[in-house]
Amino acid sequence: MLNIATPALLDKVADFIVACQSYEGGIGGEPGNEAHGGNTFCGLAAAMIVGCEHQLDLHSLLVRLARRSRPAARCKSSSDTSCLL
Prior knowledge:
By secondary structure, the protein is an all-alpha fold. It has helices at residues 7-10, 13-19, 37-50, 58-68.
């Protein structure tokens, strides 16, 4: 991370990530938004970098990911990976 992760830079980042987690376990782009796969992936990665993943509801997040990882009816081809998250 280019050694720029200072306390001043990371102040409130954990609170923001936790606030972005939706009732269904995924992570939205901002508090109150619907969760999406890309936001969930990046939000969880950011939480792990900052060290606040323990503040997330990981059980709900894992349940959401497990439910979304099954092939959905809307998948038209193997290249349509948006339905996997």
